[in-house]
Amino acid sequence: MSEPTQRPRKAVIPVAGLGTRFLPATKAVPKELLPVVDRPAIEYIVEEAVRAGLTDVLMVTGRGKGAIEDHFDGHPEIERALEAKGDQARLDRVNATTETEVHFVRQGVPKGLGHAVLCGRSHVGDEPFAVLLGDDMIDARDHLLEEMIQVQAQRGGSVVALMEVPREQVNLYGCAAIDPADEDSDVVRVTGLVEKPPVEDAPSNLAVIGRYVLHPRVFDVLERLEPGRGGEIQLTDALLELAEADGDGAGMTGVVFRGRRYDTGDRLDYLKAVVRLGREHPELGADFSTWLDNFVAGESR
After folding, report:
1. 3-state secondary structure of 137
2. How far apart are CA 128 and CA 255, in angstroms?
């Protein structure tokens, strides 16, 4: 693997999905704006990027996603109303959404995650960058993205986040094959990737989750990649080619994540995320925890 020319400073966040698993809630509201306690899910993702030093954020949007752009705009009427009431706490939370440099590009036709990443090529340019999927929330206490950026600085190439999943669930994910010499390590050399393999064909139980730090060479691969599974341009296919390639930008490293992750693209996991983060909320957590404990005990009516 070759060394990257600079530290990543840009993040690409694909948000063009239809959110069909949350219909009818997402018929008019983008799934990324569904609240997790009192903040839209997408805010947590942007906050994570900024915390890792990625201060230039590009969102790849699609039809019906204009509300996401509005959310990261200023809102003078709300700001004036909060200022008039002296509600500084809420004003600070509203202003926080406009402090990050957020850009938008449209994915005109939904051709898959690989195509969504490719839509960011002109903005990213010839430098390493991160991709954060909006359905995957990483707890703020777990610094996965920071570790991935550090690993890429040390090893070059590209880096993917991996997570151990029950063997019977590997068909739901992209699945990684790794160098056997790294089996006892949390930083592994990825030798192969398979998108949603049958359980019996899966090379491991290490699933690719929604964090990537990529060498810009991935754009060249995506540009010429033929549609794969589901008739879409699969990011997994491009990463597989890089993992098996030689030369500048080639090679793939995996960071095995053992922290707290919330899949807000799944209805049940979304509810779990609301409960878990609700219990830890600085203002609501204590009262909510008391109520929830009583409810579980059958004492709440």
Report:
1. strand
2. 17
Looking at residue 15, its amino acid is V
Relative to beta strand 39-40, strand 35-36 is: antiparallel
Q: State the SS3 of 194-214.
A: EECCCHHHCCCCEEEEEEEEE
Assessment of whether the complete model's pTM goes beyond 0.70: yes
Model confidence at 4: pLDDT above 50? no
Q: What is the pLDDT of residues 106-155, one digit of tens each?
A: 988 878 899 999 999 999 999 999 999 988 999 989 999 999 999 999 99
Q: Tell me which CATH homologous superfamily contains domain 10-265.
A: Spore Coat Polysaccharide Biosynthesis Protein SpsA; Chain A (3.90.550.10)
Length of the chain measured in residues: 301
Q: Which of 70, 52, 53 is nearest to 61 (CA)?
A: 70
| Token pair belonging to 219 | 């754009």
Q: By the 8 A CB rule, do 145 and 211 touch?
A: yes
SS3 262: strand
Alpha helices in the chain (DSSP H): 41-51, 66-71, 76-85, 88-96, 113-118, 121-124, 144-155, 217-224, 235-244, 267-279, 285-296
What does the mean pLDDT of the chain come to?
87
Q: What is the β-pairing status of strands 101-106 and 56-61? A: parallel
Cα angle vertex 173, ends 170, 176, to 5°? 80
**Structural domain boundaries of the chain?**
10-265, 266-301
Q: How far apart are the first and last CA of the chain?
A: 60
